[in-house]
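Long-time lurker. I teach an intro course on protein structure, and each term I like to show students one example going from raw sequence to a predicted 3D structure in token notation. This year I'd like something fresh instead of my usual example. Would anyone be willing to generate the tokens for the chain below so I can use it in lecture? Attribution to the forum is fine with me.
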Amino acid sequence: MDSSDTFPVVIAGAGFCGLALAAQLLERGQAVVLIGHAANFGRGTAYGDAWRGHLLNVPADRMGLRADAPAAFAEWLDLQGDARRQFRPRLEFGDYLAHELDGLRMRHGNRLRCIEAGITAISRGTDARWHIAIDSGETLESDRLVLALGAASTASTTTNCPLIRQPWARDALSNIAVDAPVLILGTGLTMIDMVLALQAQGHRGAITALSRRGRLPLLHPEPPLPPTPPSPALLAALEAGDLYLALREFRAAITAGAAPATLADGLRALIPQLWRGWSLPTRKRFLRHLRPWWDSVRHRVPREVFATLGRLREEGRLRICAGHFIDHENGSARIRWRGERDDVAIPASAVIDATGLDGDRDRYTTHPALSALVADGHLRIDPLGLGLDCAADGSVPGADGLHLIGFLRRGECWESTAVPELRAQAAALAERLAAY
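-- Reply from a regular --
Happy to contribute to a lecture. Here you go:
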């Protein structure tokens, strides 16, 4: 490769989104460059840095790489009957993605260029092309660039700092002693992943999980139940942005016998359309007041995981609490329990931040692949700090040829993290890019 080569489509990020998009583009006859770190190339953090005990939150028969073949993962495992609806280990799904990448390389030859490298900078040249510098010192150029960087968090190194802000970083939990009391901020899926990771490394100390509401994700219904379409009254309330009335209609449906999980599933395909129709104040109200409730219903856990949490709680090793974290000092954390006025101190040798990256604008201004684009005005952080501004098709306004896929689009469509939504984005974006 020359010091500066031009390529038809460059995808920055080689996790699920990058791989799904590359597959769709190759099938449409496009040549693609896929750039990602060598450690988890094709797998990404979610399926490369998981522990063996981390399970998928979607059944195997809905986890295929392509939108037109949702059962491909279950078929790759040769699962039959009820086993196709199992929640398989995430590392196993990573193996499937690696297998899919190998197949793309064999079928498409030099039309797929895989570059295992870190991106050091992205800029737009005077030639209107996107210039992507990688840590080998080389630069690539392209008229079409897709940012598939996941949460775009910057790498962190392991330290003895008791506050762990990037729990998915390699060895982030390695300095936690096996008998150390631990405080986890957040009670959602990331908290559960951290509890399982601690158990896998032999931790036996007390764990306190804290969030504003103290809500745990619900259990996946078994056997799976079909989605419940929203009633006309519920849909009308949501379309009008009347969150109070929508919540009342949702609860009325539950009282009438509908399962919360199936109601959430019935709304899933409508979420992007509804979100786009809401005003900024309505989105803020949702995030402030209803998001914890929605997340617990929408993002559920398999029975095996739920049983592990139940066992740890029965043994007194895990507490799920509602309250506010104040600060941490000298091996203890100051907490204000929900409904109380006074602070209390609890033992906490380490504090794990499992609240997610919402509102963390610094990650965009410090990430090597994004910082210059933000500074130059090619990218803008969305008003809620959920992601980056883009149009409904993932294109970035005012930045011709620049597109987003996956997590970075949450400010535009909200639901942009689960495989069914991501592979649909990949198919739609590939169709547009192939038509250039």
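Some talking points for your students: Residues 218 and 300 are 5 Å apart (CA to CA). Confidence is low (pLDDT under 50) at residues 156-160.
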